[in-house]
Amino acid sequence: MWRNRVHLGDCLTVLSAMPADYVDLIVTSPPYADARKHTYGGIAPDRYVEWFTKRAIEMLRVLKPSGSFVLNIKERCADGERHTYVLDLILALKREVGFRWVEEYIWHKTTAAPGKWKYRFRDSWERILHFSKSRDLKMRQDAVKVPIGEWTQARLKNMSANDRTRRESATRSKVGRRIANWEGKRLVYPSNVLRKSPVAHNTGHSAAFPEWLPEFFIKLFTDEGDVVLDPFLGSGTTYRVAKQLGRVPIGIEINPEYVQNTLTMGFPL
Ligand SMILES: C[S@@+](CC[C@H](N)C(=O)[O-])C[C@H]1O[C@@H](n2cnc3c(N)ncnc32)[C@H](O)[C@@H]1O
Question: Which ligand 1 atom lies nearest to the CA of residue 39?
Fold first, then answer.
């Protein structure tokens, strides 16, 4: 009754009825505080943490112990400064809800358009926060390797053979890496800065995910047949990508119009 379906409603209500330890991965981008008021409602920045925390308690409950929660979010500006609701939310998810904060990925939007703002420059990055339920989480690092590109040539050009094979850093900071281990390799693990375009291929939603985003995290944190949930489904990007990758998708969306759009793409309600 839950799997392979898009559920219409507030994710708080829908999740409350879902069995515990049911989902392998949650990938989502929630409504940002006060953003897009006219298209899908906004939550005042000062109420945001309280609003989100209630839903996050259910998200933690339905997640399997080996599961991950990936949250794409960026704080807006209010009264001429960055609001702290995302920072407050990270602390609340960790301290009040009980998630473990494993990593913060930066999504560097490579195609952000130039512009002029009084006290800031062009905003070209968003946070992608990775939380887990336990210390022992599922992670398939080999599934997301990237081409090493020109890194070796640029990095090794002026490096002595001794430098390539030592484990100590030159500054004795203890953060040295044995560079020689990676010479000749075609694929390496990515960094936590994801340099990617925001271009999405969905129509009918003002904040659709680009497909690479759910794809990267679904490959990283699940195997085929695992359950992937997006509790703020929007136009259904996570759902569609999860299905294409042989995972079992579940979507929740409060706006019947978006659900209708997803349905016209052939997904059952
Ligand atoms: C940022 S959009 C998600 C876009 C999505 N990642 C995509 O690729 O289209 C957030 C979505 O959450 C929905 N939403 C807002 N409050 C909700 C709630 N309480 N429960 C479920 N969905 C909600 C909005 O209608 C909106 O479509």
Answer: 25
Q: Provide the mean pLDDT of the chain.
A: 89
Name residues contacting ligand 1 (CB within 6 A): 10-11, 29-31, 40, 202, 205, 207-209, 231-232, 234-235, 237, 252-255, 258
- Asked if residue 128 lies in contact with residue 104, where contact means CB atoms within 8 angstroms, the answer is yes
Q: Closest by alpha carbon to 24, among 232, 262, 242?
A: 242
Substitution site in 12, 209, 212, 233 for ligand 1 pocket (most atoms within 8 Å of beta carbon): 233
Number of H helices, E strands in the chain: 9, 12
Nearest to 218 by CA among 195, 245, 193, 191: 245
Domains present along the chain, CATH in parentheses: 5-141+190-264 (3.40.50.150), 146-188 (no CATH)
- The first and second tokens of residue 269, run together, are 């309600």
What pTM did the predictor assign? 0.91
**CB under 8 Å to 255, separation ≥6 — which residues?**
40
Q: What is the 3-state secondary structure (H, E, C) of 102-144?
A: EEEEEEEECCCCCCCCCCCCCCCEEEEEEEECCCCCCCCHHHH
- Residue-wise pLDDT tens digits, 50-61: 999 999 999 999
The Cβ of residue 194 has, within 10 Å, a number of other Cβ atoms equal to 21
Higher pLDDT, 120 or 202: 120
Atom index in ligand 1 nearest the CA of residue 238 equals 8
Whether residue 26 contacts residue 69, with contact meaning beta carbons closer than 8 Å, is answered with yes
65-79, 110-124, 152-166 — which is least confidently predicted?
Answer: 152-166
What is the whole-number distance in angstroms between the Cα of residue 103 and the centre of ligand 1? Answer: 23
